[in-house]
Amino acid sequence: MNGHDAMLEDVAVYALGALPREQARAVREHLASCAECAAEYRRLKPAVDAVAYSAEACPDAASGAVVPNPRLKTRIMDEVRRSVPTRLSNVGEMRAVRPIVWPAYAVAAACLAVALITTAFNISLNEELHQTEAQVAQLGTHAKMLTRQVAAQNTELVDLTSSDSQHYAVEDGEVVRHGNRLYIAMDSMGTPPRGKVYQAWIMRKGAAKMTPSVTFMPDRKGIAVIHVPTQASQVAEVAVSMEPEGGSKQPTSKPTFIVKLT
Length: 262
Ligand SMILES: [Zn+2]
Hints:
By secondary structure, the chain is of the alpha+beta class. It is built from six helices and ten strands; from the N terminus they run αααββαααββββββββ. The strands form three sheets. Strands 3-4-5-8 form a four-stranded antiparallel beta sheet. Strands 7-6-9-10 form a four-stranded antiparallel beta sheet, with no helix packed on it.
């Protein structure tokens, strides 16, 4: 057996961190100059680390299930230490009295098997974690949306009930202006026939034509509170008409109401 072959066997034990200091140094020096051994070390190290750092697991003999085994690493390390000499002063002497090295390889193989099982165990935990994280993110988004909705509704409520709001009575409801915000608040609108919706219109100050605004549907009691997205101070008139779903660019029916804002 040449130095390289012997070293390759030591690499497995070195990766486990079970090599006596002298030999470990020899392996480190060899790894720096031998691509093959270095590759073997890189192949083994992650698996060994997985055993060291993960919640250790091994197959339960009775059930075959993967169960945590906190003593596993200790047992592997003890096994490895028994298979290599521990009190040697130099590498040459170590080579001479070194016992059979196969157990170290067997241990390394067992270690890899355990690492694979552990990894599988971790993958399923990770999947669960990712799912939970996705759910939390989704709930967070939902909560933000609800917060925004509540804030918007609070603003609406204040605008609609404020004593300095201006109210313009129309059939079945009113148009409300508070500051620069504009609302249509209806309390007994008829349900439009299938395929039809209500649409709001605004006439800007100085304009000759109505500008189309939002479409909406009253609830089953005929109630609709609509924020009209516009600068209320620039609006001279507000109207509502019944239009085909999706809305129209110009009114296609006689308005339900037209009201001048003064
Ligand atoms: Zn080598």
